[in-house]
Amino acid sequence: MINPHIFKAYDIRGIYPTEINENAIHEIGIAFGHYLKNGLVVIGHDARLSSSSLYSAIIKALKGYSNELSIIEGGAMTTPMLYFLVGRRGADAGIMITASHNPKEYNGLKIVKKEAEPFSGKDIYALINNLSNE
């Protein structure tokens, strides 16, 4: 079960691996894939030690959910670069693995919709709850 306290107003973040980990990221990826159904998603990650593993977990979850999702694997990049790519490529969403300004033991996700419009962590949590109630 995912810790509900990691879902914030503008992002998802927690201490790795106790509050946020590959299993939580997988569940978040499945819920977000269910929401998107198809389209184009840009995914990137920062330089934190845990980011590569979480990046792989979200890609695996999205690819496992649907082959109708196209994924641009951006690799290591900054959050503004991800936002730029979402807009430039006309993507339906973007997912950045980052805990932003938080200390190194944290990690998380910033998720955006078209035109890099923020998708709140609380909305993602609602997607997970709705999916588990289906």
Give structural notes.
The chain has a single domain, classed as Alpha-D-Glucose-1,6-Bisphosphate, subunit A, domain 3 (Alpha-D-Glucose-1,6-Bisphosphate, Chain A, domain 3). The protein is 40% helix and 25% strand. It is built from four helices and six strands, in the order βαβαβαβββα. α1 packs parallel to α2 and α1 packs across α4. The model has no long low-confidence stretch (mean pLDDT 95).
Overall residue-averaged pLDDT value: 95
Largest sheet: 6 strands, mixed
**Distance, first to last CA:** 17 Å
Can you identify the CATH superfamily? Alpha-D-Glucose-1,6-Bisphosphate, subunit A, domain 3
Structural class call reads: alpha/beta
Architecture (CATH level 2) name: 3-Layer(aba) Sandwich
Strand content: 25-35%
Helix fraction bin: 25-40%
Radius of gyration based on Cα positions = 13 Å
Q: Please give the domain count.
A: 1
CATH fold description: Alpha-D-Glucose-1,6-Bisphosphate, Chain A, domain 3
Please give the count of helices.
Answer: 4
Q: How many strand segments?
A: 6
Topology as H/E string?
EHEHEHEEEH
Secondary-structure blueprint:
Elements: E1 12-15, H1 22-36, E2 39-45, H2 51-65, E3 69-76, H3 79-88, E4 93-97, E5 106-113, E6 118-119, H4 121-133
Parallel strand pairs: 2-3, 2-4
Antiparallel strand pairs: 1-5, 4-5, 5-6
Helix pairs in contact: 1-2, 1-4
What are the salient characteristics of this protein?
134 residues; alpha/beta; Alpha-D-Glucose-1,6-Bisphosphate, Chain A, domain 3; 6-stranded mixed β-sheet; 40% helix
